[in-house]
Amino acid sequence: FAIALYLDEAYPDRPTLFGGEGGEAMARFIERWSQVTIHPYVTTAAIMDLHAMQDAENAVYFRQSREQRLGKRLEEVTAAREAGLGTFRASLEPLRSMLFYQPFIGGAAPLFGDYIVFGALQWARIASPYQLLDDGDVVAQWFARCLDLHGGLGRKVAAAA
Prior knowledge:
The protein has 161 residues and is an all-alpha fold. The chain is built from nine helices and no strands. It has helices at 2-10, 21-37, 39-52, 56-70, 74-79, 81-91, 93-99, 112-127, 138-152. Helix 2 runs parallel beside helix 8 (112-127) and helix 3 runs parallel beside helix 8. The protein starts with a helix and ends in a 9-residue tail after the last helix.
């Protein structure tokens, strides 16, 4: 968030990331919503894939620290992902409903709020092959538009296989 604030201030000749104080306040809300709605389920869905990415030394620390934080074994966390998928997808309804009216969270063009939510879903995309979104979902279509922003920069990072 601090980097986005800096960029908006340091480069006033570039498109704004917030669109003013109201957009900054709204982005704070979106950031918090993402942290309590999207991030926990991404953790559930991808934790074993993230563990598998670690080298031997880091895998030990990763497992210990995450199991302590989550209060259960990583395998137990991931075992809950199928049962939680419907609830996760339903939790995106406010975003889905809004995207019926406009192509981005920011309206006609993306603002920092889009990048906040995109970042969480991009994290899932590159960390795990588990499919969080149904391809026909308006949220999946918005995510695809975000992947195509800035000359397809988001797509240049390979999805997990």
